[in-house]
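ok trying again, last paste got cut off:
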Amino acid sequence: MSKIAESELIINARGAVYHLDLRPDEIANTVITVGDPDRVKEVSKHFDSIEVRSQHREFITHTGYVGKKRLTVLSSGIGPDNIDIVINELDALANIDFETRTIKPQLKPLNIIRIGTSGSLQEDIPVDNFVASTHGLGIDNLLNFYRHEQNEEEKLLLQSFVTHTQLHGQVGHPYISGAAASLLKNFVSGFHQGITVTCPGFYGPQGRILRLGIQNPNLINRLTDFRFGQHRITNFEMETSAIYGLGKLLGHHCLAINAIVANRVRKEFSKDGKAAVENLIKKFITIFADSI
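nice, full thing came through this time. structure:
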């Protein structure tokens, strides 16, 4: 098997992967990703013990135990470009031998779960509620840099989505990937479920208008109104489709759960988003301890 060149997989002097500055033994098989570096400690304070604390750039990592179960929480920073780094480097930590620079003969799937914040696109999903994403639908273009294929149902859904939203020629072709059923089944009670759209930015890409005009001023309404069979778009943010898309290609089990801090239909924002996130974290820790 051919070696991966030093320029392609960068390993630092302590034997850690370049951006995350982690060694293979410093991550658990279940990894929580959070966008905000300050949120790492808000998750790890619920651990019974912490054995690894690491920080490099915006990537902060704590690995420890909840009961006898090992768990890592890692800050990704914001956006699909950061997710490209995080998912590829997590996979390298799990599935590439750093000594030989070769892919391991037995690949290990990770559980990768995003705990984040998001904006609701449905009136009946109010602020401070939780959403578990059945699919990540990307208008961020990241997965189009990789070899990937959509099944026939996904192709039809995407064709309907592009026609309905009138995104022809405005962005790279959208893509869609599903959540891991093995994880999603644990996040039913107390969660809304639906498609999460991932955008490459917070303002114009999510239909916000400050001083700049936008190409598609009706985007919010079109996302809210979109239906394909039993599917509807529940929310949007900046990471889920990238996690689902790359994770699926690499054989990992991925899920995104989000606290709703804004309702774009009602024009409302949470009065205490921090409390909503804390409630979501506590709910996740309970589910992890019991079921994952």
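cool. The first helix runs from residue 39 to 44. The chain has a mean pLDDT of 96.
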